[in-house]
Design a protein that fits this description.
The complex is a heterodimer of chains A (264) and B (291).
Chain A: E1 2-11, E2 19-29, E3 34-38, H1 45-53, E4 60-65, E5 68-69, H2 75-78, E6 82-85, H3 99-107, H4 121-131, H5 151-162, E7 169-173, H6 181-198, E8 201-206, H7 209-214, E9 218-223, E10 226-232, H8 233-237, H9 241-252
Parallel strand pairs in A: 3-8, 3-9, 6-7, 7-8
Antiparallel strand pairs in A: 1-2, 1-4, 4-5, 9-10
Chain B: H1 3-29, H2 37-53, H3 58-81, H4 87-106, E1 110-112, H5 119-124, H6 133-153, H7 156-166, H8 168-173, H9 178-204, E2 206-208, H10 215-229, H11 235-258, H12 269-290
Antiparallel strand pairs in B: 1-2
Helix pairs in contact in B: 1-6, 1-9, 1-10, 1-11, 2-3, 2-4, 2-9, 3-4, 3-9, 6-11, 7-9, 10-11, 10-12
Classes of the chains: A alpha/beta (264), B mainly alpha (291).
Chain lengths: 264, 291
C-alpha cells in the first residue's frame, strides 16, 4: 500500500524560476494495484515518483508505505520497501560489473550487505532461475559485463533485479522511453507479467497514453501539479486515447499542444 | 644497476605498493580522488616514530599509526559528506591540516629512529640476514594487505562499496548506504597509507614532516601504470597490478637514475613521474579516439 498524503513541493522557491511542481496531491494505492500516471512535461509526474522513492523531499505532506511514514527516510532505507526502474538503461545497473555481480548487489536491497562472500552457489542458482524467466539467454552470461548488453536487455535485467527480493512496491519511471519500439514493447510485456505474477503494488509514470491505458488497472492524470483525472474499474476500461484528449481539453479549455505527450 | 640499488628499489616499491592499494580503493573502487594521503603518509610515520621514541613496541606503534591513518580518512569523509566539500578539496584540506598536526605530534620537524627497535630489527633478531630483512617483511605485509583487500572486496560489503563507487544512484536504490561506504573506503585507504608511512620511516631510520610530498603521484603512477600493463576487471588481478606497478615504477626510476647517459638526478624524479602519469592517463583515451 502506498499513501501519498497532501504532497506539495515548490522548486527554486523565491526565484524567478519558481515552480510549484506539486500542489497538494493525495493518492492512495491499495495492495497489488498497478497504477499508471500520465501527464505532459512539467505536470509533476516524475516529481511525484521521486518523492515516493526519496530522491526529493516534499515541502508539506506525508508518504506512507505499508502503513509506515517514510517521508523522512533516506533513499537507501526506503529501498527495503521500494524497488524502482529508471528511464536511463544505464542508471539501474553497474555497467563495469558482471551480470552476477549486479544481481548480488540487487539482493542487498532486501537482505543488507554482510561479510560473507557476495557471490556463492545459492546466489548463482537464484540468478539463473530468475533470469531464465526473461527467455533472452542472460542466465548463461552471468560473467559478462552488463555494459555489453543492449538497452532493452539492461532494462529487462533491471526488472529482474528490482523484483529479486520480496518486493511490495515497484516504481517505474518511464522505463521503456529510451528503448526502440520493439524493445519497449517487449520490456513492457515482461514488466506486466512480473507485476501480475508477483502481485506487486506498482506505480508507472509514462508519456504514452496508449501504454497508460493498456497496462495496469487505474489511470491517474496530472496537470500542473494536480490530479485532474483518477479512473479505475469500468470507468477506466471504457477510456480511449481520444477520451483522454477530450477530457484534457475540456479541463483546460485549451488545445493539448504538447508534442511530448505521445498519442499512441 | 647494482644489487644494492635493486634491493633498495624493491624495498621502496613494496612500501609504496601499500599506498597504491589504498589509491586503488579510493580512485578506482570509490571513484573518489583522495589527496589525504599526502598528509596521512607522514602522519603514519610521525605517530609510529613518536610512540617508538618513548619505548612503545614497534609493532604496536605501527598498528597505532594505521588507526591514526584511518581517522584521517574519516575526517576527509566528514568534510566531503557532512560539509559537502568537493572530494578532492576535502582531501587537500585534511592533508594541509595534517602538516601542522605532524609537527605537533613529533614536537619537531623530524624524529630519528637510529638505535631504536623497529619492526625490521625485531625480525633481524629472529636470525634473518639483515640486508634482506626489509624485503622479506615488506613482501609479507604487502601480500597480507593485498589478500585482505581482495577478500574484503568479494564480500557483500565489498561489492556494495564497488557499486557505490560505480553507480551511486543505483547503489542507493538497492539499499546501499553510499555515505557509509565512502567513509569505510577512505578509512581503509588511509590506514594502508599510514602503515606505508610507518614502515617507510622505520626503513629510513627517521620520520620527517615533509616525507609526504608527491606520495599521491607515486601511488597514481603505480595504479595507472600497473593497470595499463595488466588490465583486468578482476579485483585480485587489479590489486596485483597495483603492487607490480609500484615495484616496476621504482625499478624504472632506479635504472634511469643509475644511467649516466640520460643525466637524470634524484631531483628530477617528481617531474619524470608527473610526465609518466600524464602520458599513461592520456594514452587510453587517445587509443579509443582513433578506434
Amino acid at each position: 500500500m502506498i499513501l501519498i498524503d497532501k504532497i506539495a513541493i515548490t522548486f527554486n522557491q523565491g526565484t524567478p524560476l519558481e515552480m510549484r511542481a506539486l500542489r497538494g496531491v493525495t493518492l492512495e494505492i491499495p495492495d497489488g494495484q498497478f497504477v499508471t500516471v500520465i501527464g505532459s512535461n512539467g505536470a509533476g509526474k516524475s516529481t511525484l515518483l521521486n518523492i515516493v522513492a526519496g530522491e526529493a523531499r516534499p515541502d508539506t505532506g506525508r508518504v506512507l508505505a505499508d502503513g509506515t511514514d517514510i517521508t523522512s527516510w533516506p533513499i537507501h532505507r526506503r529501498a527495503s520497501k521500494i524497488a524502482r526502474l529508471f528511464q536511463d538503461p544505464r542508471a539501474g545497473i553497474c555497467g563495469e560489473m558482471s551480470i552476477i555481480e549486479n544481481m548480488a548487489v540487487a539482493l542487498s536491497r532486501t537482505s543488507p550487505a554482510r561479510f560473507g562472500f557476495a557471490i556463492n552457489q545459492s546466489v548463482r542458482k537464484l540468478a539463473r532461475e530468475r533470469l531464465s524467466m526473461l527467455n533472452i539467454g542472460l542466465e548463461n552470461r552471468l560473467e559478462d559485463r552488463v555494459a555489453l548488453l543492449s538497452g532493452g536487455q539492461r532494462q529487462a535485467l533491471s526488472l529482474i533485479m528490482a523484483t529479486l527480493g520480496p518486493t511490495k512496491i515497484l516504481l517505474l519511471d518511464e522505463h521503456t522511453a529510451a528503448l526502440d519500439p520493439a524493445a519497449a514493447d517487449q520490456v513492457m510485456k515482461l514488466t506486466d507479467d512480473v507485476v501480475r505474477s508477483l502481485g506487486i503494488t506498482t506505480m508507472m509514470v509514462t508519456h504514452s497514453m496508449r501504454q497508460a491505458l493498456d497496462y495496469g488497472s487505474r489511470i491517474v492524470m496530472l496537470h500542473q501539479g494536480e490530479v485532474i483525472l483518477d479512473a479505475s474499474g469500468p470507468d477506466r476500461d471504457a477510456l480511449e486515447v481520444a477520451d483522454l484528449l477530450k477530457f484534457f481539453q475540456r479541463k483546460q479549455g485549451a488545445e493539448l499542444a504538447d508534442d511530448q505527450l505521445l498519442l499512441t | 644497476m647494482s644489487l644494492y640499488a635493486f634491493v633498495g628499489a624493491l624495498e621502496t616499491g613494496l612500501v609504496f605498493a601499500l599506498v597504491a592499494l589504498g589509491a586503488y580503493v579510493t580512485f578506482r573502487v570509490l571513484d573518489f580522488p583522495d589527496l589525504t594521503v599526502e598528509g596521512s603518509f607522514p602522519f603514519g610515520a610521525a605517530v609510529a616514530a613518536s610512540f617508538m621514541a618513548i619505548g612503545v613496541n614497534p609493532w604496536i606503534a605501527t598498528l597505532l599509526a594505521m588507526i591514526a591513518g584511518a581517522i584521517t580518512g574519516l575526517v576527509t569523509g566528514l568534510l566531503n559528506i557532512q560539509f559537502r566539500i568537493l572530494n578532492i578539496l576535502a582531501g587537500i584540506l585534511t592533508a594541509i591540516a595534517l602538516y601542522s598536526v605532524n609537527l605537533r605530534v613529533m614536537g619537531r620537524p623530524n624524529i630519528g629512529l637510529i638505535g631504536v627497535d623497529t619492526v625490521y630489527s625485531t625480525i633481524e633478531h629472529l636470525g634473518f640476514p639483515s640486508f634482506y630483512v626489509p624485503v622479506i617483511l615488506l613482501t609479507a605485509v604487502v601480500v597480507v594487505c593485498k589478500l585482505f583487500l581482495d577478500l574484503f572486496l568479494s564480500t557483500g560489503y565489498g561489492l556494495a562499496m564497488r557499486a557505490a563507487g560505480a553507480n551511486p544512484r543505483m547503489a542507493r536504490a538497492n539499499g546501499i548506504n553510499v555515505d557509509r561506504m565512502v567513509y569505510l573506503g577512505l578509512a581503509i585507504a588511509n590506514a594502508l597509507t599510514a602503515l606505508s608511512g610507518a614502515l617507510f620511516a622505520q626503513m629510513l631510520g627517521a620520520a620527517d614532516v615533509s616525507m609526504g610530498i608527491g606520495v599521491i603521484v607515486i601511488a597514481l603512477a603505480a595504479v595507472i601504470g600497473g593497470t595499463a600493463l595488466l588490465p583486468s576487471r578482476v579485483v585480485a588481478l587489479a590489486t596485483l597490478a597495483c603492487v607490480l606497478g609500484s615495484i616496476f615504477y621504482r625499478i624504472v626510476i632506479g635504472l634511469a637514475l643509475s644511467s649516466n647517459a640520460i643525466g637524470f638526478t634524484a631531483s628530477d624524479v617528481n617531474l619524470v613521474t608527473a610526465i609518466l602519469v600524464a602520458v599513461a592517463l592520456y594514452l587510453p583515451g587517445c587509443k579509443s579516439k582513433h578506434s
